[in-house]
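Escalated from tier 1: 3-hydroxybutanoyl-coenzyme A holo job.
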Amino acid sequence: MSDVVTVEIVGNAGLVAIDSPPVNAAGVAVRSGLFDAVTQLEANDAVSVIAIYAKGRTFIAGADIREFGKPPQEPGLGAVCGKLENCSKPVISILHGTPLGGGLEVAFSTHARVGIAGVRVGLPEVLLGILPGAGGTQRAPRLIGVDAAMEMITSGRHIPTAEAKELGLIDSIESGDPRDVAIASAEAVTNGTLATRRTCDVKVEVSDEIVASWKAKIEAKFPNLFSPHRCVEAVAASALPIDEGLKEERRLFMQCMDSPQRSGLIHAFFSERAVQKVPEAKETPRDIAAMAVIGGGTMGSGITTSALMAGLSVKLMERNDEAVEHARKTITGNLDGGVKRGKMKQEVRDDILNNKLTFTTDIAALDEADLIIEAVFEEMPIKKDIFTQLDKIAKPGAILASNTSYLDVNEIASATSRPQDVLGLHFFSPAHIMRLLEVIAAEKTAPEVTATGFALAKKLKKVGVRSEVCDGFIGNRILAHYRRVVDYMYMDGADFEQVDKALEAFGFAMGPFAVSDLAGLDIGWATRKRLAKTRSNRERVVDISDRICENGWFGRKTGKGFYVYDGKNRSVNPEIKAIEDSERAAAGVTPRNFTDEEIVDRYMTAMISEAARVVDDGTALRPIDVDAVFLFGYGFPRFRGGPLHYADTIGAQTLIDRIETYAKEDDYYWQVPDILRRMANDGSTFGDLN
Ligand code: 3HC
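Tier 2 regenerated the structure:
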């Protein structure tokens, strides 16, 4: 029949099997195979029921995303769905794994859906910046009602088996191999125990009130996003006769396909997978069943929580009993938060605390650990002392990791006689929530040790990104650079609240001043003091934040920073203005106004400049690795795909022009990265380097 879709006749049943690994995506071969299979079986008099199932790990997990943006190939998925729905013989689908998006839309077009226990279904298109474009917005409301369809389509969430049955997305739940279930279900259709109907024949009620309430909800929740609003419009069109509704869905689908958000969100989707492709991926990771963490502060406790939640056992070391108790409290609080957020059951939390978490104050007790992560103060002598001790007690082959956020991992490794076993594992705070994990491969790190870092990331459901050693690694190095442009604009007259609002409107969850307040202004203060010794005398220095810190205003934790806080609300700290005025006057600056556009352009150009250098000097493997770091660790707006994906939407020459213009004020800070010049010359993009 075709390489990926085969037909088999068993009794009166025509079985259609899809076999297109890894996830049976509905690429052109699957679509034409399905179309032809149904055409053939409909014409075969020996067949009275058609059952579609898939081999491998899942029923069709969606349209083939790799085809997006390329010229469409016939038949489209909508045509395949129409063919199934209008087939003169009953057609059923057997769903296992994750029938998502276009896969679920295929199932909606069959005349009954049998779920195999464990199946999770969903219409996640909105997360890719589009909407279900093969009838999902018209058929979901017919099957489960408008309200549930709006919720399902605008959230994109995966729906577990029992709920899918309750909602009416699937008609029955069976267990077994998909082919066996297909044969049994075809029999059930023949003997009348499994009812079939065409979804398009189901009446749907759409009230103006419900549409208005969803419009308002989505407006409040996703003011920056394009596709969720189109999803609501498309579902509202299910009030129309199906052919007209499908036309409206198509029109809105094409609008989404043409939007830059679609390209950004799909880039973000692939970035999560692309970062796993590292040179060390072919190595066999070492076993990490027994894990230890040194340091029970915010980071150490967060790392411990993350490992415990992933099912690992952890031994945590602290200096004394008091510090142990503090760590126990923090971890218990983190786990309780997990229970509250529905991430874990109370019994699991109890089991972890009783059986999986142990403490010690003696470093020698870590001699059984396969992996030891150090998360103590960011001071080189302290780190080196710990690694010297670890070298003496850790078992042969144990992996020794530092959670340093900027220190030289080569130097830390040099404190041991086994630098091949040492790497950096840079978690982001709060470590049990943030998904980014920078895996720092030092000069002598053995390849399988780096591979183990990635295996750990996967186990912890984190996104591991490979970085070489440098001050700050990928993320903090880029942050240190672009954060300075914020201070420069501020000193030159930009209103800090306007800066925050302009960048929040661009899509960041929080502007840079609000972030500083949250992180603690004392942290930036300490960093500036540390770096002061190594600073070039050409570097422009802005001291407003230091003056603010001198008042003991460290941001949220002291109730006051750039803003004053009243619960969740922030308002501008009225005492800041006098500090700004005097600092600007002392520096001889006549403040000027900035437009929102200029704020965003300068901020993003600074970020892109350092990100480009990080790629060019090999700190990051590819531009997409930098994008992943910002998407999963720095709250970069997902719909913009990451700083270097966004850079491609601007173009190398425009970026160079901007940098050269800004350089007229400060040619030390604003320097054109070589890679941008090369890209402008040969017309290439960051995307080409992925
Ligand atoms: N198209 C193309 N490739 C896909 C794909 C898709 N829809 N879904 C997954 N893949 C690829 C991945 O990129 C990965 O490739 P790689 O091995 O080369 O990196 C491989 O399949 C395996 O994917 P995962 O590593 O993600 O495997 P998991 O088992 O962890 O997860 C999954 C499986 C839950 C299916 C997850 O891949 C997923 O969520 N996929 C996307 C599902 C989706 O969004 N579907 C809707 C698509 S849009 C659509 O259908 C439009 C329609 O309405 C017209």
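Residues 22-23, 25, 61-66, 77, 98, 100-102, 105, 124-125, 128, 132-134, 136, 273 surround 3-hydroxybutanoyl-coenzyme A (CB under 6 Å).
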